[in-house]
Amino acid sequence: MKRRSATVLTALASASAAALATVLAYGMPASAHDGGGRTGAQQLGDPQYGVCRGLDSGCYHNWGNFDLSKGIKVLVYSRTAGPRHANLGPALGPGLNPPLADANVAQKALVKLGQQNGFAVDWTEDVTQLASPNTLFKYNAVIFLSTSRDALDDSAQTSLRQYIRGGGGFVAIHNAFGTEYNWPWYEGLLGGTNYYDHGPAQAGTVQTVERNDVSTKNLPNRWAFTDEWYNLDPFPSNVRFLAKVDESSLAQGVTGSMGHPGHGANHPVAWCQYYDGGRSWVTTLGHEDWAFTNTSTSDGARYFQSLIVGGIKSAAGAAPFCR
Question: Per its UniProt record, what Gene3D superfamilies does this chain match (predicted)?
Answer without folding.
Answer: 3.40.50.880
